[in-house]
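I am writing to request your help with a piece of structural work I have in hand. Here, with my thanks, is the record as I have it:
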Amino acid sequence: MRILGTISTLLMIVIMFVFFYFFMMRPQKKQQQQRQEMLSGLKKGDKIVTIGGLHGVIDKVDRQSNTVDLDLDGIYLTFNLSAIRTVVPAGQPAEPTQAKTEDDKPYSEGDGDTTDDADDKNK
């Protein structure tokens, strides 16, 4: 009777290990492999999004130092390869397009003199 209890306990431990492997460890390994393939396939001209939400185009990839130089509309920044979240597919825009309206202005127009706005209207 004691042997059956030991065997059933060992069987439950083995079943729990198999469960954890197939439902936790295996999917995580697949995600890591997919991410590694994505990072190893980076090349100049790819559109990417960083973990901080910056959208840019790859200018240079340095595999020895694990860095990537991004062109962000004329501003060049260097990031670690681990800072890249996704590569934007070729058919999609890197940034969402939004029509600008007059209300989107971050400041009011004028000459910068805030003391007398009546003079601005008379000019």
Summary: The chain has a mean pLDDT of 80. The chain has two domains: 1-40, 43-95.
